[in-house]
Write a structure and sequence with these properties.
Radius of gyration: 26 Å
Largest sheet: 8 strands, mixed
Distance between the termini: 50 Å
Structural class: alpha+beta
Number of domains: 3
Helix content: 10-25%
Strand order of the largest sheet: 29-30-32-31-33-34-35-36
Length: about 675
Amino acid sequence: MLRRASCAVLICFLAFVSVSRAQVRVPTVDDLINVRQISGPKISPNGRWIAYTVSETDWKQDAFVTQLWIVNLSTGNNIQLTRGDKSSSSPQWSPDSQSLAFTSSRIGDKSQIFLIRPDGGEAIQLTKAENGVGGYAWSRDGKFIAYSSSDANQQETKARKDFLGDFEVVRKEYNHSHLWTFEVSEALAAPITGTQRSKGKDFSVTSFSWSPDGRQIAFSATSNPDLINGGTSDIYRLDTADNSIRKLVSQPGPDSNPAWSPDGRQIIFNSAMGNPKYFHSNQRLAVISADGGAPQSLTDSFDEQPSFIDWNADGIYFSGQQKTASHLFRIDLKNNRIIRISAPESLIAGGFDFSADGKLVAFSSASPASLNELYVSSVSNFAPRKLTSMTDQVKNYRLAGREVISWTSKDGTVIEGILIKPTDFDPSKKYPLLCVIHGGPTGVDRPTLLDARYYPADIWAGRGALVLKVNYRGSAGYGEKFRQLNVRNLGVGDAWDVLSGIDYLIGKGWVDSKRVGCMGWSQGGYISAFLTTSSDKFAAISVGAGISNWATYYYNTDITPFTIQYLGDDPADDTEIYQKTSPMTYIKQAKTPTLIQHGEFDKRVPIANAYELRQGLEDRRIPVELIVYKGYGHGITKPKSMRAVMQHNLAWFNHYIWGDPLPDFSKPELPKKETSGEDRKTIGN
């Protein structure tokens, strides 16, 4: 009898395993876009709650919508606090932990500050800022909130438009950002604007922080909001008694993100420490007396970009990258020694936030086997406890493995990358290889789930391809010297790193050298464009929002200092460096079929770069398609257009790598019946 029962259990178990395996499948484009993502953990000052945000896909209104959630640390219960069609974001706890502020445009079309209790109920609108709220911060006693807002005069703008139509005088018309404060008790009765604390056209506020006694506000500001003036950012101090303002730090390069010491005697901030070439150089954490003086750098020994988190009784805490990992660090102010707090070495963590007593820290973290999840840990004994289960939503998808590999580039530089393998990878077989190149150039790729935007790596891996994500020279996480290896060497050195990575995998016998593709967005699009005109190694390439001609880019971009800092001069004075690093210089030797994707209103990489590359390839009779995504700038920010971007890339590489028919992009196949959400069927996979 027992034997029969055991057999019955075994049969049921095998049946369950069979069904479970049958349910595991390669995700579709829509599956990837539908994955919910968490970010922004904020631990309550009393250490009882953690607020965080969850981003979801709303196909009906074609938007990614963010809502607030909280988790009770004693019970582990996760509760959704906000709902609706409009996003709720930027949560900040009141100092007494009794309420949670956030920003939303749920009433009207401007972002305002709202307040909600952690046990739920209706949110209360606190502000009615005419031009909406930018950043905001509670005073330490919880009685006041400061916020930044534009000084745009809506009435003047409307009057001019009504009489003369709509126009803009370039680099002369700026809406500066300024500081306002309001009393929370008054705002609870009815939404208010508050008291304007700064004004005028001498500076534009970017970030700010209350002093512990609530009498002063430290803030950083640039000469105006134009991105080309990022290097003018300095530190100021405002006295709330009379609104007097004093500049505390004035030096070349940006000084920003001020915060006060616990005793109110010092201010810590991010600083280029007078270095005007700040795009590719390490910034520092520096301190200055609240009364001014010479800034003192605290992180000279940390060879990366430190990001300030908190100043507690036992030291200053910051986060920073170490190759593909990211960690929590503490500066011991007794000897300025920097100590890594978090572990293991491969941890990929971010969004660190402390309880008021400094004993607990909340953060988010992802891994090769998990999506971003929320964690909490004791600071003195770092042992993270997971609080969310976001990875459950992809448990029925066949997702590829991810690992960090390294190789030697042409000039001897060691390069790392993320290799994504099919689940049934066999080292004795040869696979197609698709290279995905990150932007920046100071971005970095990490071995984490999930590639849910632009380039669907798991779909290609599910079809039997290797995917290589290259952390080429210039990438963040590897120190200042590595980050500067492509200064006056853009494209050229970057191409060495991609091509040597391909050769490394070919040398291991894993890659079919006739089926190699390459793609990337922004700086990754530029490197892809460089490769499409200078190399014959690829069967197909996709260029997303990429630079094709540095001179065209320089004269049209919204961040001209970036070009000068990397190339050293402007195109008129140094034509040689612009020719050396421009894909169009090599257009006569182009051979690779190329898909070009670009946002219609891109100011970062103006669309002239896309048209220039398209025409150059067409003139050489190279197969080329240019797809312009209407209404977008540098990034694609809505679900339906993101679906289009991913499907276009799938179709392009599926044709040139696997031999599938190439569809007419102007006449896409559409579903017969419009559906929404997770039930939608995606074509082209």
